[in-house]
Amino acid sequence: MSKELEFENSVKNILEYIGEDVNREGLEKTPSRVRKAFEFMCGGYKQDPKEIINQALFTSTNDEMVVIKDIEFYSMCEHHMLPIIGKAHIAYIPDGKVVGLSKIPRIVDVFARRLQIQEQMTEQICDALHEALNPKGVAVMIDARHMCMEMRGVEKICSTTVTSALRGLFKREKTTKDEFLSIVAQSLHK
Ligand SMILES: Nc1nc2c(ncn2[C@@H]2O[C@H](COP(=O)(O)OP(=O)(O)OP(=O)(O)O)[C@@H](O)[C@H]2O)c(=O)[nH]1
Ligand SMILES: [Zn+2]
Questions:
Q1: Which Enzyme Commission number(s) are on file for it (predicted)?
Q2: What are residue 180's phi and psi, to 5 degrees?
């Protein structure tokens, strides 16, 4: 049996388990729709962040902080496979090269489109940028809502989780870190 069919049969098992009639018309294509949705939502496993960044690296003498704020993303927690919905705020200080701006949200999606815990996703984005750009510093802050804490479990719909990862100047210099925090503060969930 193909892997695709195995996946679709697993979806049918879940539908049966929750008490659905897998043969009713509305559910006929659901297993294959779910498979395609998962292939998209977990497409990050097949992507290489270095390859993405290397497509658009430009020599530059600029060494001022570059901040890309409010990068929305959808991920899934590895414990419940329920959505994590949030925003990433990313800054770096170039050291001889800058990256095409669109590549930063692409890197966020590479790691968001995997099963995640928020702390790990924050670190992975930071490390990927640090390794590929070799900048003077990188900072990543993620502010997200976890559906496993809203739709079920503790059912706290107003709580958000903020995580950060800092490298280089952002870690060593308080003024650099504070500048990043003041730019990002306005974007955090109220
Ligand atoms: N640190 C961290 N924990 C997470 C993240 N996403 C979900 N969790 C937590 O993972 C934990 C799993 O705990 P368990 O006790 O094994 O699972 P559970 O019985 O479903 O727990 P409840 O959610 O409290 O009902 C829960 O406390 C979740 O809130 C994340 O991104 N980071
Ligand atoms: Zn969860």
A1: 3.5.4.16
A2: -60, -50
Residue 189, pLDDT > 80, answer: no
**Per-residue pLDDT for 190 more than 80?**
no
For atom 9 of ligand 1, the residue with the nearest CA is 79
Centroid of chain to Cα 11: 25
The residue to mutate among 111, 147, 148, having the most atoms of ligand 1 within 8 angstroms of its beta carbon, is 148
Q: Name every residue whose Cβ is closer than 8 Å to that of residue 71 and which is 6 or more positions away in sequence.
A: 87, 88, 89, 90, 104, 105, 108
Phi-psi region of 155 (alpha: psi -120 to 50; beta: other; left: phi over 0): left
Report all structural domains of the chain as residue ranges with CATH numbers, in order of start.
3-41 (1.10.286.10), 48-185 (3.30.1130.10)
* Annotated binding-site positions for Zn(2+): 77, 80, 148
DSSP string across 103-127: HHHHHHHHHHSSEE-HHHHHHHHHH
